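Exercise 3.2. Students should predict the tertiary structure of the chain below and write it as structure tokens, then compare their answer with the key that follows.

Predict this chain's 3D structure.
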Amino acid sequence: MSDKALNVLFLCTHNSARSILAEAILNHIGKGRFKAWSAGSSPRENQQPNALGLQVLKSAGISVEGLRSKSWDEFGAADAPHMDLVITVCDNAVGEVCPYWPGQPATAHWGYPDPSAGEGSDAQKLEAFRQTLHAIKRRLDILLSLPHEKLAKTLLQTTARDLAKE
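Answer key:
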């Protein structure tokens, strides 16, 4: 495998919570081996990253600079970065028909419950975001610990899908 960073795109429906968390975490811990982005299949008009998600990221010492909700259409364009790996992080997005991704990246699904769904106190909602951040980070730590040969294109899809079982 070359020394170039692997490009990873995290997908969710609205691109406001789980995919944003995953993008920020991987860019924080990726150590130059990974570059992450996130997008949604159908972000709402004027969609913004969830404020509780941003708060949890900041509390964990992870930069939120540049994070924004965006459509996955941005990544299907000819001038978009070519992805090596596309990971859906919500069960709704996994069942949707994805656009064509230039370069035919590996794909995987890592489902997480939506921390912004449901009722509860602000403290309970914040805790749901913390739990989601930790769950995503655990899987990403494993991905980062893999030797270069496990990240070669031919093995990347199997490796990423196996991590869904962790």
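Discussion points: The two ends are 24 Å apart (CA to CA). Strands lie at 6-12, 34-40, 85-88, 106-109.
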